[in-house]
Specification:
Layout (H helix, E strand, L loop, with lengths): L2 H67 L5 E11 L4 E4 L12 E7 L5 E12 L4 E5 L5 H4 L5 E6 L4 H50 L13 H4 L2 H46 L13
Length: about 290
């Protein structure tokens, strides 16, 4: 046999021996790919089902968002806002006629916070408008404590706010108005009471000066009575001293009078005693002269 035939025969024998092994390996690989394809098909169908479910939820959420935002009309987010007159609540925004704003139009302002939340600052009226700028003033009664917390920066502005939110703000504004009026009334009464207290203090000082004297409040002319210079207490003390002296003098006079009365009684008794010792004329012996 030719050498090439021998080689071919050898290769045929080798191929015949290797064919079962390769066939088994091929079947094993095909089964692996089949399992992967089956798994991928199942995963794909599961993902498609979840996608359709999530898409349905997204459509519902978008519809709810659209219904929620419908009453709010136009919204302008992240609008640069500057506080131009903090005491009056006036602001300037980078919006103007290019977005359809016009003078005397109302806008509702929300101050954005670092965490993404917002604070409703109220309704504003456009007092001046240009192509990309507008000046606004508050449409409510401003209060200094409320305006003190305002900060310029990126605000959200809306052309319409649902009535429920506006009513709540208006109700709170009325409550604040009543509270401010009550506070003003209480402060007025407190001022009156403080004025009365000061007047009472002055009256008290004057009355005390009238009692115990006060060079700052009473004249010190030597010709004035003591009560007008040194107070009623000093005058009473002087009168008491004069009274005590008079009482002492009266008491001395009484003692002298009592002593004199005793002396008179003693002399009278002595006179009676002496008179009793005088000789008396005999009865019937007296001669009568014609």
């Amino acid at each position: 046999m030719h050498i090439s035939g021998k080689i071919l025969a050898a290769l045929t024998i080798i191929a015949g021996l290797a064919a079962p092994v390769l066939t088994a390996k091929l079947i094993q690989v095909r089964n692996g790919w089949t399992r992967k394809a089956t798994k991928l098909t199942a995963d794909y169908e599961r993902v498609i089902g979840e996608k359709e479910k999530l898409q349905g939820q997204l459509d519902v959420t978008r519809a709810e968002l659209a219904r929620t935002l419908a009453p709010w009309n136009l919204t302008f987010n992240k609008i640069n806002t500057a506080i131009t007159a903090a005491a009056e609540g006036k602001v300037t925004i980078e919006l103007g006629t290019e977005v359809g704003l016009k003078e005397k139009q109302w806008l509702y302002g929300f101050e954005m916070q670092p965490d993404g939340s917002s604070i409703y600052r109220g309704v504003f009226e456009i007092t001046g408008v240009r192509e990309r700028q507008a000046l606004l003033k508050p449409r409510w009664r401003t209060r200094k404590p409320d305006l003190a917390g305002w900060k310029g920066g990126e605000w959200r502005w809306r052309t319409v706010v649902p009535d429920g939110y506006v009513k709540r703000f208006t109700d709170l504004e009325l409550l604040l108005l009543k509270a401010d009026e009550l506070l003003a009334d209480r402060q007025g009464r407190l001022t009156d009471v403080e004025a009365m207290f000061e007047e009472s203090e002055e009256q008290l000082k004057f009355r005390v000066a009238e009692l115990i004297g006060n060079p700052e409040l009473l004249p010190q002319a030597a010709t004035l009575p003591t009560e007008n210079r040194s107070g009623l207490v000093a005058a009473l003390e002087e009168e008491a001293a004069v009274r005590d002296a008079a009482l002492a003098e009266i008491d001395g006079l009484r003692r002298d009078l009592r002593k004199l009365a005793k002396e008179i009684d003693a002399i009278d008794a002595q006179n009676r005693e002496l008179a009793a010792k005088l000789p008396r004329p005999a009865v019937g012996t007296a001669s009568r002269q014609p």
